[in-house]
Design brief:
Elements lengths: L7 H23 L2 E6 L9 H13 L4 E7 L30 H11 L3 E7 L2 E3 L8 H4 L5 E3 L14 E3 L4 H17 L4 E5 L10 E2 L8 H9 L11 H21 L12 E6 L13 H4 L4 H7 L4 E6 L6 H17 L4 E6 L6 H13 L4 E5 L18 H8 L21 E10 L10 E3 L6 E3 L5 E8 L5 E8 L4 E2 L1 E7 L4 E3 L2 E5 L5 E2 L14 E11 L1 H4 L2 E5 L5 E4 L9 E11 L5 E13 L7 E2 L23 E12 L2 E5 L8 E4 L12 E13 L2 E7 L6 E2 L2
Parallel strand pairs: 1-2, 1-12, 2-3, 3-7, 7-9, 9-10, 10-11, 11-12, 13-20, 13-21, 22-23, 25-27, 28-29, 31-33
Antiparallel strand pairs: 4-6, 5-6, 5-8, 13-16, 14-15, 14-17, 17-19, 18-21, 23-24, 23-26, 24-25, 26-27, 29-30, 29-32, 30-31, 32-33, 32-34
Helix pairs in contact: 1-11, 2-3, 2-12, 5-7
Length: about 700
């Protein structure tokens, strides 16, 4: 008997056809991601006619998403280089026809056809020449570049490309700014990263060796090391380089949902990921991990909504076909609780073989497929050279994609369905306002913890949240030298809750000041402690708390977030300072003790001319009677809005200025009055002048 052997490709097509009916129902019911990558180096989105054709072909193929490469290089050195949108951050590509905004037109046309648009960004690749053509920003910042270890201290390429340093905080901020610009100005459906990794293990070293915010400088500060680690074999350095990529992915995951003006929320966060060769059983054995792209960890943390492994294999090559399936089987496990959209190389395969691979992907439980590429659709003669055959779109639209399908929903981003949320924010130094690198943000007693990046940002995902939100105590800690900062934060399901922290440096031990009159012996900025002081006025009475010695030898302004209670005896800690008027004061005051005094607060009786900062104890320079509760008298010489002046003949000019308390009626011109109040200094036309601030209307007595 002679058995006719069918061509393998035809047999594959027949097998595919048998599975289509069941597959269609599954796809249509649950949603599936059907996308293709449209690169910047072929026809696709550089004119209105190209975009019209692009969308029409996507419709014919029943695709529901397009991933256009809107940023392949950060320069304008040739076709495919520059931004394919109107950007204030990246120079616009020069091969755009008709003066259009390609992204705006693509979004308009694609959405009208029911198709999503996900912006494809090559993260760190800048240019092939230096300075980068058209990009004055990057040209002025060579310190943002990383180089191989042997080129440290000079501008050089990594694998032939000038490449940004992932560990540099300025680079991270620049890339996040690009994402914000796209998601704010365009109704896009997602951000899609490519080359979100190092392209070589021999990279990560600064082009400007003295730059103290390079990735290497951060590594040295965080670890306490002073050496330059080797390009390979240093586990601590390798982990740090993985961390630098993690930081960008995690931060963009948190920032995207906060751009609430985008009408296409929730925006999908995805990435094209390495899946070279065969799939190992452990992710740490993958090429991705060795090039510091720890994408299984990203999926476990929920930093990506979907992984798009670039599983580019030839179905006609037996070991390639096996590797393709092995990778599919691994990635559906490594996706954790998110989606996987398997990248498939139609440019390496015949059309039936591409359908066979895509069908296997869906049957194995993947949530969708992404073809590479839009313009190079087939290798019909399997000679290794891809071809442009636009019939692919009618072919796929009548076979595997015969029924339309929506993109899959993201229940973890839906407040009605999600069971956890994201906590995001920034940690800064409370004194300087500068971001703190490598601070720890944590929920005590749990695994929910994160370290801040070089810009002070942290992201904690997967925090369980009830429908109305769940409140957690969360701490920001910056190790020795800082006080831990606590916040009670409400985490909402399916949402990002932002909470910023300001951590304060531990203050130095205070200097004991036995008497307030000793203040003149200390320079501004000295932290002091003083005991046995009487509170003479609260901040609500005199603009600030005031305290004085029991013997009325000196008093001082005590600025605090607390309101002191007059009549109490306190011990306080504060930092000495001098107001522009010359009045000495204590800032950041804290009460160490606060007890009932039990006696009367006595004021210092003095004539108007004695209310001054130049009189009193010579050792109390800058104090005198300023800061004391004083009692004086005289005739009203001026009566004006908000104040009057008092003189008994001892003072020059019109006399002592007295501030009229709120709700008080100022005494009549010429009236004799007795006034009790806090002596302070006020800026006058020719210098500082003393003023008296009564604590209440009852401090003004008319005999």
């Amino acid at each position: 008997m002679i058995v006719k052997q069918f061509p393998r490709s035809l047999m594959a097509a027949l097998v595919t056809a048998l599975a289509l009916a069941a597959a269609h129902l599954q796809v249509s019911a649950d949603g599936v991601f059907r996308a293709f990558w449209a690169d910047a180096f072929h026809s696709g989105f550089k004119s209105t006619s190209q975009i019209d054709s692009l969308v029409a072909r996507a419709v014919a193929g029943k695709y529901n998403a397009i991933i256009p490469e809107v940023l392949a290089y950060h320069d304008t050195a040739g076709g495919g280089h520059g931004a394919y949108w109107n950007s204030s951050l990246v120079p616009k590509a020069t091969d755009i026809s008709g003066g259009i905004d390609p992204l705006a037109y693509l979004v308009q046309k694609a959405h009208a056809a029911g198709i999503e648009v996900h912006c494809w960004l090559v993260a760190y690749r800048v240019s092939t020449s230096w300075p980068p053509a058209g990009n004055s920003l990057l040209a002025s910042h060579p310190e943002w570049l990383m180089v191989p270890s042997g080129s440290m201290g000079s501008v050089a390429t990594v694998d032939g490309k000038y490449t940004l340093d992932p560990g540099c905080p300025a680079v991270q901020e620049h890339l996040v700014s690009i994402v914000r610009e796209l998601a704010t100005n365009y109704a896009i459906d997602g951000i899609h990263w490519d080359y979100i990794r190092y392209t070589s293990a021999d990279a990560g070293y600064p082009a400007v060796a003295s730059y103290n915010k390079s990735g290497l400088s951060r590594f040295q500060r965080i670890t306490g090391r002073t050496d330059v680690p080797a390009a390979s074999g240093d586990a601590q350095w390798d982990d740090f380089r993985r961390r630098t990529i993690n930081e960008l992915v995690a931060r963009v995951r948190a920032e995207l949902p906060l751009i609430t003006t985008n009408p296409r929320q929730p925006l999908r966060h995805t990435a094209a990921l390495i899946s070279f060769g065969d799939a190992p059983s452990l992710f740490t054995s993958t090429s991705a991990y060795k090039l510091f792209q720890n994408w299984e960890h990203w999926m476990a943390q929920g930093w990506l909504d979907a992984a798009c492994p670039m599983n580019y294999k030839r179905e006609a090559v037996p070991n390639n076909a096996l590797w393709y399936r092995n990778w599919i089987n691994r990635v559906v496990v490594w996706r954790h609780d998110r989606h996987v959209f398997c990248g498939q190389a139609n440019y390496l395969n015949t059309m039936p073989d591409s359908v066979t691979q895509m069908q296997y992907c869906l049957d194995a439980g993947a949530n969708g497929t992404v073809n590479y590429s839009y313009a190079v659709t087939v290798d019909s003669n399997e000679d290794g050279t891809g071809e442009t055959d636009w019939s692919w779109y009618s072919y796929i639209g009548s076979t595997l994609f015969a029924l339309p399908a929506p993109t899959p929903a993201m229940p973890w981003r839906d407040p009605a369905l999600a069971t956890d949320g994201v906590l995001f924010g920034r940690v800064v130094d409370a004194i300087t306002g500068e971001p703190i690198d490598n601070a720890t943000v944590l929920r005590p007693g749990s695994a929910y913890t994160a370290q801040t990046d070089g810009n002070g940002y942290y992201t904690i995902t997967g925090m369980p949240a009830a429908a109305s939100g769940t409140v957690y105590p969360v701490y920001a800690i910056n190790g020795a030298g800082y006080i831990a900062s606590r916040r009670d934060v409400r985490v909402l399901p399916g949402a990002v809750s932002r909470e910023d922290f300001a951590v304060s440096p531990l203050a130095p031990q205070p200097v004991q000041m036995s008497r307030l009159g000793e203040a003149g012996q200390f320079v501004d900025g000295t932290r002091v402690i003083a005991s046995g002081l009487l509170v003479t006025a609260s901040s609500q009475q005199a603009g600030a708390n005031y305290v004085q010695q029991q013997d009325r030898s000196a008093g001082i302004r005590a600025e605090s977030t607390d309101v002191f209670t007059p009549g109490r005896m306190v011990q306080i800690v504060g930092v000495l300072g001098t107001k522009p008027t010359g009045e000495r004061y204590l800032r950041d005051c804290q009460r160490v003790s606060d007890i009932e005094y039990g006696g009367d607060i006595r004021s210092l009786a003095c004539r108007p001319a004695q209310v001054t900062w130049t009189s009193g104890d010579p050792a109390a320079k800058g104090l005198g009677t300023i800061g004391l509760l004083v009692d004086t008298w005289g005739r009203v010489t001026i009566r004006s809005t908000g104040y009057f002046t008092l003189n008994d003949g001892s003072a020059s000019g019109s006399g002592l200025k007295v501030i009229t308390p709120v709700a008080a009626t100022p005494p009549s011109l010429g009236a004799m009055v007795r006034v009790t109040g806090i002596a302070q200094l006020e800026a006058g036309p020719t210098g500082s002048i003393p003023v008296l601030v009564p604590r209440s209307p009852g401090d003004i007595v008319r005999p």
